[in-house]
Amino acid sequence: MSFELVLFGGTGDLAWRKLMPALFQAFRHGTLPAQGRIIGVARDDLSDDQLVEALGNLKREQFNLRFQAATSQLEKSSRVKEVRREIARIKTLQAQRTAAAAK
What we know:
By secondary structure, this protein is an alpha+beta fold. The chain contains three helices and two strands.
């Protein structure tokens, strides 16, 4: 059996925090059909330069947050995890684009 799942808002916070991990777990447990496709659709289409700029900004913020944590000045500790996830999301998008360009 084959299937296609279209995720509207595929680059959004909900998709990355809840839907993608759940789909990955379903894949790992073998509950997704082997001949299936998951398609993510989003309105925001960032260029490669915009992704690089956003990644640089997030890495600077991550450094500042680590410094604040080391000096006991960090006010919102949950932001560290948010920034780490955003960095991972951007790196995933970059890797997907690189893989698509190589085909």
